[in-house]
Design goal:
Inositol_monophosphatase-like (chains A, B); D-Maltodextrin-Binding Protein, domain 2; 14 strands; metal ion binding (chains A, B); homodimer; hydrolase (chains A, B); 5-stranded mixed sheet; metal-binding (chains A, B); 270 residues; 8 helices; Fructose-1,6-Bisphosphatase, Chain A, domain 1; globular; inositol-phosphate phosphatase (chains A, B); 2 domains
Chain lengths: 270, 270
């Protein structure tokens, strides 16, 4: 593929990305046994920090060996400073859902988005303990392991199940909580899993109909947003504008019908 | 075992219960393939109702063949009317988390509690899609598959992660939501999974520190409450009284330190 001066075979890049994501997952599962967690309970935060950093370093080392010009924007900040999306940029969260990692030993994800000249090309959300991969190649489709993900079908808001943290229906500085209360009364149900990447993976696979957050970082959503467009989910900040990938921003992803209605009738930013 | 005139080998009963729970799980997994759910999307509610009922009938048939004097109180109401806990009573929820069943194809549980002369003796929560069993024999311990579940260790409320639905922090008729808002601001995090049995299984295995609901039925909690006492979790209604097994009631289960503090400082029933 020739693209803005970058010569890349997307198939090769995809194969490489899947390999290192699965290898990173294997390393995390090995580093973290049930007994290890119990023994170091008082140091659980240190443990997760170490595994988080080790995993990010693992990605950096592998990616730089693959192509030294690729840059890495990671949650742990172990890569170089990334102030633009020029060239090839990997946006990586080595462990999304660290509290789940510590307490539940499940429900944490590796999230990876690969951008080429500012455009999302490859997106991955990997459920480490389930060994489950949600992924997409822009323009070619999305998959859940070896099965294609279907295009989302319309759902009425009153039949929707949405991911939202309970905090946002209480008085807060970011959004009119009275409208959020109306929203959760309108929908069929709400869920909260403690991992943005997990909730996004659930939206793109139709297990949730929308997910809303008042503050996310690029690495929380980079993988998911690329999968989203392949299945017909819409993702943006809460103003309906593109998410700002070089900062933090509000976020919503949803089935199109549900997305439109939530933005139009239930979101009032403060 | 001789108990109040009932002659029962608890080990035999446990083995039998595990066998039929796993067989019921296998039947559900077989009845419900990904494609089946998609094809019958418009009839998803009928589908789940049918599988729910079939599963309850399967339990009734098996249990009556095992011992015709055992009685069954099930969510689907296919057993006889149970107005007391005399003798041996099985309290069964064939699918706890039906919305998860329909939309997510995961995160639904079979919950079974076996009571002898009013006392909880055997408790089971089975995660059907993971093939994961949490269970306990009263006085003998609790297990997660083949591993013993450890006694819960103390946790501070500010480090706790609790299961609570977002509705309960909004104005409602059951509980002072202002105090619930204080609670969710105090704790480290909240989760909501859409299956009471799943959230209870997470509390008894230390994956959550408490779970609160304003209205549950006996079948939602019968399995879990028996596991709770083996790991040192406390379960009651929100007045701190024993849950009413012949009706619906409020419910809290938690790590003891967290349980006490929530009941004392954050629950004000209306």
């Amino acid at each position: 593929m020739k693209k803005g001066g970058i010569d890349l075979d997307i198939g090769v890049l995809d194969k490489f990305a899947q390999e290192i994501i699965k290898e990173a997952g294997e390393r995390i599962r090995a580093a973290f046994s049930y007994d290890l967690i119990i023994e170091t309970k008082s140091n659980a935060n240190d443990l997760v920090t170490n595994i988080d950093r080790d995993t990010e370093l693992f990605f950096i080392e592998k990616i730089k060996a693959f192509d030294v010009t690729h840059r890495i924007l990671g949650e742990e900040g172990m890569g170089e400073k990334v102030e633009s999306l020029e060239g090839v940029v990997w946006i990586i969260d080595p462990i999304d859902g660290t509290m789940n990692f510590v307490k539940q030993h499940r429900h944490f994800m590796i999230s990876v988005g690969i951008f080429i000249e500012g455009k999302g090309k490859l997106g991955y959300i990997y459920d480490v303990m389930r060994d489950d991969l949600f992924y997409a190649i822009a323009g070619e489709g999305a998959w859940y392991n070896d099965k294609p993900l279907r295009k989302l079908t319309p759902v009425k808001l009153e039949e929707a199940v949405i991911g939202i943290n309970a905090s946002w229906v209480t008085p807060n500085k970011r959004v009119n909580h009275e409208k959020m209360i109306q929203l959760i009364r309108k929908v069929r149900g709400t869920r909260s899993y403690g991992s943005a990447a997990m909730e996004i993976a659930f939206v793109v696979s139709g297990k949730l109909d929308a997910y809303i957050s008042m503050r996310l970082a690029p690495w929380d959503i980079a993988g998911g947003i690329i999968i989203a467009s392949e299945v017909g989910a819409i993702a943006s900040n809460l103003k309906g504008e593109p998410f700002d990938f070089l900062s933090q921003d509000t976020f919503i992803i949803g089935n199109p019908t549900v997305y439109q209605e939530i933005i139009a009738n239930y979101i009032e930013q403060l």
